[in-house]
Amino acid sequence: MTVRRRFTAWVAVPLGIIAVASVVVSNAGAADPVPGSQGTDTSLPATDSQVTVNGRGAFADLAITVNQTQALTNQAVSITWQGATPTTRGPGRFGANYLQIMQCWGEDDGTIPGNPGPPPEQCVQGAVGGTPSGVPSGLFPAGFALTRAISRSTFESFDPAVGVLDPRTSFVWRQFRAVDGEVVDIPTDPTFDPSFGGGNFWLNPYFGASTTNEIVSAATGPDGTGAELMEILTGLQSSGLGCGQRVQPTEGGGRAVPKCWIVIVPRGSATDENQGTPFAVDADQFGVVTSPLSTNAWQNRIAIPLDFRPVDSPCSLAAEERRIAGTELALTAVASWQPALCTGGGLPPFSYSPISDASARQQLASGVQGAPGMIVVSRPLPPATVSPTNPVVYAPLSVSGLTIGFNVERAPTPNAPFDAQQLEGVRVAEMHLTPRLVAKLLTQSYSAQLNIFQPPDYEWMVNNPPHLGQDPDFLQFNPEFHLLEIDR
To answer: Is 375 helix (H, G, I), strand (E, B) or coil?
Structure first.
């Protein structure tokens, strides 16, 4: 869980920012645990660029909706669907009939005329399982389903013309081609030994387990619907994709902004998905084990194009620019104004420099050539530093508040009822907090927040719960968490 303070804003040819914190008090009371009572609908409001795309073939009844596809930045988008076959269990939670979602770049590869989309080599996928220890068993898909390994040389489906064969393991890997033209053939080092210092297991420098935004398994409910939130990455967060940036090499030595996409690969029955592998026999015993980038799975992929706000400044670098400086919290807002202000005609280009409040106030008061004529600050300038003949004017820019964010996927306890087990892996949509609970989070009063190798010897901490999920105050207002395993 993260607690984030957002700033409000005032302008002055400085801008003054006034912060106003707010907390919503929950009126929820104690109740018996009910599976799904914390909500399962994480969808975001529709925008003017919302789109819905249907699947093909065996997935023709599947309709996928993305709530925003234009004017994107680094943000979350809502992906919802209906008409899908409910997810079934296998050896773990995701045996068959689920979705795998990823972000990709590139022009249409021409393989599916009815639904243009990028090639599989240009998708951020396969990093979640890119650690020597793999991923926890029992929840995520099994086999190659989390990886870029699309086959083995011993499989019936082996095609030497597709992928890169690693003779050390007999795995066939789908390459990753970054927008700058670099290619990663094999993403893992099978000789890596974590007991020895040095070396890396994961070899792809463009994304890894902590930076990927792929959704490896999205569950469909008994009614054929589902919902997920996906973080969309610009080129600043994912240099391999370069979305919104002029980074794609073009003929003549220029640079272009790459086309970017959300790609959804629907996974069907284990029997269909495992064709050409030894796991096609008694497939239900193994569940879906093949990679979404394998030829058989990729033919069903659904691509949805994305359009980004420019990441590169649209302001000319040749002309004399006008400076704005101040808190980093206003950087995103100012960047969103630049396309209109720098292309409006007759206006000088301007730049924004994130600096401390004190530095911003000092620079505005200095009056030296090149100093900013507008700043974003949390407090006004001291009156003694302002000339009466050249006063500073303030104006509000934004309103702030307190944001408490959380990301919890349900992991039911072994004795939870069947309805709760069916929601395994589905995000919790709502959480009820009180001022007392917020105070506990802000003051780090839970013992697990202070443990490193052993609990510290603090007398006041002896009887405190280890974490939020075992706090009676929290469980009183969030009874469904009695059904969930919360590690920390």
So the answer is: strand
Q: What is the dihedral of CA 367, 373, 379, 381, to 10 degrees?
A: 20
For strands 350-354 and 322-326, give the pairing. parallel
For residue 51 the two structure tokens come to 């789109």
Nearest to 123 by CA among 140, 100, 95, 141: 100
CA angle 72, 76, 79 (to 5 degrees): 100
Per the document, the length of the chain is: 488
Contacts of 63 (CB under 8 A, 6+ apart): 52, 53, 54, 55, 81, 82, 83
For the whole model, what pTM was predicted?
Answer: 0.83
Report which of 73, 81, 80 is spatially closest to residue 43, judged by C-alpha positions: 80
> Which is nearest to 56 in space by CA: 18, 112, 124?
112
Question: What is the number of other CB atoms lying within 10 angstroms of the CB of residue 261?
Answer: 26
CA distance 261 to 354: 31
CA distances from 226 to 33, 212, 251, 260, 286 (A): 22, 22, 43, 24, 24
User: 3-state class of 260 per DSSP?
Assistant: strand
Residues 437, 194: Cα–Cα separation, whole Å: 40
Pairing of strands 164-166, 171-173: antiparallel
Instruction: Give strand pairing partners of 260.
Output: 105, 306
Which residue's structure tokens are 């997935």?
59
Nearest 5°: phi and psi at 217?
A: -160, 115
Which tokens is 271 given? 């029997």
Residue type at position 478: N
The secondary structure of residue 121, as a DSSP letter, is G
The phi and psi torsions of 4 (rounded to 5 degrees) equal -125, 130
Tell me how far apart the terminal alpha carbons of the chain are, to the nearest angstrom.
10
pLDDT per residue of the chain (488 residues) written in tens, 0 to 9? 443 333 334 444 433 333 333 344 445 555 689 999 999 888 999 999 999 999 999 999 999 999 999 999 999 999 999 999 999 988 888 999 999 999 999 999 999 999 999 999 999 999 998 888 777 667 788 889 999 999 999 999 899 999 999 999 999 999 999 999 999 999 999 999 888 878 899 999 999 999 999 999 999 999 999 999 999 999 999 999 999 999 999 998 899 999 999 999 999 999 999 999 999 988 888 999 999 999 999 999 999 999 998 888 767 666 677 888 998 888 878 877 777 777 666 777 778 889 998 999 999 988 788 888 889 988 889 988 888 888 899 988 777 777 888 889 888 998 999 999 888 888 899 999 999 999 988 888 888 877 777 777 777 777 888 888 899 999 999 999 999 988 65
Residue in this structure with the two tokens 């959300």, named with its chain if needed: 262
Q: How far apart are CA 118 and CA 405, in angstroms?
A: 33
